[in-house]
Amino acid sequence: MMHLKEETLFRSTQWLIIDADCKSNLMIVLLKGKGENIVQLNGKTIFTGPTGFSKIRFTAEHFCLLNHTTLSFYTLSGEFVFECEVGNDIFELFTYRQGVMCSYGDEGVFGKKLGKNRLNYAAPFQKPESYYDLAIQNQLLYEPLFARYKPYACLGFSMETNELFFLDAQLKREGTMNVPFDTGNIIAFALTYKYGLFLEENKMLLWEFETTGQVLEYPGEFTYSTRAIFSRHEYLFLTISEEEVRVFKPIMNRYL
């Protein structure tokens, strides 16, 4: 048997929620105010700025905001630190080293800088660093999904194979495993030392990849605003609506 343990970490009745992130006991939210964007950390406003921001993420020591092609870094008290240009059509940002790794959608990959914006590392006080060669090595075309696992894992984009890549701290491939189901519709995934969880719009797949290899399927409803929590946290997934931020993880009775 399986059930979802869920918790609402933030609810807003005054402003629309644009994006959010969490780690440990910290919750940061990007809000749409009247003619401005607002950032709140654990319910306290720490930053107010112009509109146009679309993503917010924690880094090791800061948080960052994405505004179209510009990524800006701030202290946790809201003071500006650094900004850099990271290109068009950012698909996802995930915490990496002292900054974030930027992955791209198809327009980012096949745009003006043809094929060069597949994977870029951005951090304060340095120019963005291209991980293009690693992206090619790991068959990452566009919209790859990453998760934490000893220390990283990712699903690439391939029309022919369904492979899970295990990566070291430098994102170099350490191993590959064939996934026994189609990964083309996966919204988000997370790996634990017991199993892997893969979310689609109308179901969740539990894969015992470390042990039996068995795949269990459970019905569910998951939106494209759902993603794996990349920093250390009690829960595995975060989902965002205009009114609230929820976190959840499955509880499997067989593992209790």
3D architecture notes:
35% of the residues are buried. The chain contains two helices and 24 strands. The longest helix is centred in the middle third of the chain and has 6 residues, at 132-137. It has 256 residues and is mostly beta strands. The chain has helices at residues 106-109, 132-137, and strands at 2-11, 16-23, 26-32, 37-41, 44-49, 55-58, 63-67, 70-74, 80-85, 90-96, 99-104, 119-122, 129-130, 145-148, 152-155, 163-167, 173-178, 188-191, 196-200, 203-207, 215-219, 226-228, 237-240, 244-252. A hairpin with a 7-residue loop joins strand 20 (203-207) and strand 21 (215-219).
What's the structural blueprint in terms of helices and strands?
Layout: E1 2-11, E2 16-23, E3 26-32, E4 37-41, E5 44-49, E6 55-58, E7 63-67, E8 70-74, E9 80-85, E10 90-96, E11 99-104, H1 106-109, E12 119-122, E13 129-130, H2 132-137, E14 145-148, E15 152-155, E16 163-167, E17 173-178, E18 188-191, E19 196-200, E20 203-207, E21 215-219, E22 226-228, E23 237-240, E24 244-252
Antiparallel strand pairs: 1-24, 2-3, 3-4, 4-5, 6-7, 7-8, 8-9, 10-11, 11-12, 12-13, 14-15, 15-16, 16-17, 18-19, 19-20, 20-21, 22-23, 23-24
